Amino acid sequence: MQRGRHAELSLASLPGKGISLMADMPIERDTLIAQYVGEVISRAMYREPVNTNEVIDARFIGGIARFANNSCSPYCVVERWEVGGETCCGIFSVTAINKGEEITIKYGRAFVRDRVS
Fold first, then answer.
1. How far apart (Å, rounded) are the C-alpha atoms in residues 43 and 51?
2. CA triplet 102, 81, 55: central angle to 5 degrees?
3. What single-letter DSSP state applies at residue 81?
4. Which is nearest to 64 in space by CA: 25, 98, 96, 19?
5. What is the pLDDT of residues 15-54, one digit of tens each?
6. Which of the four, 15, 36, 46, 57, has the lowest number of CB atoms within 10 Å?
7. 22-61: b or e for each residue (b if 16 or more CB lie within 10 Å)?
8. Measuring CA to CA, how many Å separate 21 from each of 65, 66, 86?
9. CATH H-level superfamily of 9-116
10. Is pLDDT of 79 > 50?
């Protein structure tokens, strides 16, 4: 995440899903797909119950990663990293992803894994 590199991605409208995040290149397992960014807000301001004091709300302000849709069998996970004293979140592949496939994560209270670099 320090280098700001990520996979080549695009957005597509998929029937029944709306706007979806798509791979524009083959992606290997354990690859940073994109950094997940948005407005940092308090737990009290967020619309869903969460287990942390702060959350990243990407509904109105955020990068392309906010278009990753939910899946019960996701291709990716969201990981929280400490990089240079800053907390960052990124979407990482847990399996190889083919060009043209949708980038998916599992939504939910505990979908972020902690990592330290």
1. 8
2. 75
3. E
4. 19
5. 999 999 999 999 999 999 998 765 554 444 444 444 455 5
6. 15
7. bbeeebeeebbbbbbbbeeeeeeeeeeeeeeeebbbbeee
8. 7, 8, 26
9. SET domain (2.170.270.10)
10. yes
